[in-house]
Amino acid sequence: MSGRSIQGGFFITFEGPEGAGKTTQIVRLQEALARRGYDVCVTREPGGTALGERLRDLIKHFDDPEGVTPEAELLLFGASRAQHLRLRIEPHLARGGVVLCDRFADSTTVYQGIARGLDPDFIAAMHRFTIGRRWPDLTIVLDLDVDVGRERARQRGRLAPGPADRIEAEARPFHEAVRNGFLALAATAPERFRVIPADADPAAVHARILLEVDRALGGVP
Ligand code: TMP
């Protein structure tokens, strides 16, 4: 199919609690959009650049007994995002492509702001500094019961054993705060967010996502 280009590109992010199946759904959506002729870039946060991937490893697996303070963690996510937006996301959008990003600034608002309790005004200022007005055009929140999600994440860990992830390893109330935080945040901007239950089978979840994306893209020249 001939390439389809969108003036200014189209930026879609995926958010939600752990184990909601974002990665699986992003791959399915990538395939569906590529079949429709869009130039699709799949990327993730933290990560997406050489620096970002190094920071991702540090953020997730830093195991020195000194640990990582919440403030330092916040700034590491900010550093990864600044690099990622300038070097990967903006150039692909400028070429008229679609960017599918596994987590973005809303994760910082929820994980570091709501669940870790860091100053929301500082986080908003950090977003202004790192992304300015380049908020996603559409954000899919895959919503899932915390216990189901954590069990899925545990199973995934068993399939691909490795060092435990510092954030996944947080206690249940932290993950409850994350889930509720995403739902509350989504309710503040319904024009950008779509909350999709992630407990159905992956094909059904994909169909819901594709419907929302087609609707959103349908409104784009
Ligand atoms: P994941 O998306 O592969 O699960 O790993 C990213 C982890 O980092 C996940 O636990 C959510 C967390 N995170 C934050 O706490 N703040 C952020 O800004 C981002 C992008 C991710």
Describe the structure.
The chain is α/β, with parallel strands linked by helices and 221 residues long. The chain has one domain: P-loop containing nucleotide triphosphate hydrolases (Rossmann fold). The protein is built from eight helices and five strands; from the N terminus they run E-H-E-H-H-E-H-H-E-H-H-E-H. It has a five-stranded parallel sheet with strand order 2-3-1-4-5, sandwiched between helices. Helix 2 packs antiparallel against helix 3 (70-94) and helix 4 (105-115) packs antiparallel against helix 5 (120-130). The radius of gyration is 17 Å and the shape is globular. The model has no long low-confidence stretch (mean pLDDT 94). The site of thymidine-5'-phosphate has 12 residues, from helix 4.
Largest sheet: number of strands, sense, barrel closure: 5 strands, parallel
Report the bound ligands by name, code or SMILES: thymidine-5'-phosphate
CATH superfamily, by name, is P-loop containing nucleotide triphosphate hydrolases
Q: Into which percentage range does the β-strand content fall?
A: 5-15%
Strand order of the largest sheet: 2-3-1-4-5
Radius of gyration: 17 Å
Low-pLDDT stretches:
none
Mean pLDDT: 94
The fold-level CATH name is Rossmann fold
